Fold this sequence. Notes:
Elements: E1 2-7, H1 11-22, E2 27-33, H2 36-46, E3 50-53, H3 62-70, E4 80-85, H4 90-99, E5 103-106, H5 111-122, E6 127-128, H6 130-141, H7 145-148, H8 151-161, H9 166-173, H10 177-191, H11 196-205
Parallel strand pairs: 1-2, 1-3, 3-4, 4-5, 5-6
Helix pairs in contact: 2-3, 3-4, 8-10, 8-11, 9-10, 10-11
Amino acid sequence: MIRLLIADDHPVVRAGLAGLLSDEPGLEVVAEASDGDEAVRLAAATRPDVVLMDLRMPRVDGVAATTRIAAGEAGEPAPRVLILTTYESDDQILAAIEAGAAGYLLKAAPQAEIVAGIRSVAAGQSALSPQVAVRLVERMRRPAPESVLTARETEVLRLVASGHSNKQIAVALGIGESTVKTHLLKIFDKLGVADRTRAVTLAMERGLLA
């Protein structure tokens, strides 16, 4: 029997998933959590085999909760985490995988795909929706950020890291504010991120702003 914990902040979604999965042979829903913090606590209390984790939840989101569960806060051996969400940006996919998630499926996936993903993750394998798998392959094929960021883009990113606004960056570099926005969009695309915070974090992790 595969024991499941469902973590989602929408009661209707939790109830729907619990109803669907409870009817599947070999699956048992042992707990439901409405946010990431509760997911970690209930995972420690109920010791599920797999945690179905949404990404966007109040208080503690799915990525942070996955990190804590993978780090052993829910006990050892750590439950396997399968992200089940409506979001599929490169930034979110990578953040979840880096946090320790064993799989990433979309809520719009057929029930059979979700059930198969649960069984795969419980067996120690990974599970990725076709859309997510394609995004990861495309990301791996991109040149490393170190080889594609220009000197000006690095300069802009360094000022972003220092807390400068677009207007302040434009003044500091003697360029137009629209040019700053263009540089930022190119930086986001090259790094595969969606916002300034993640761009700076990833750049620091890879030593681009040293």
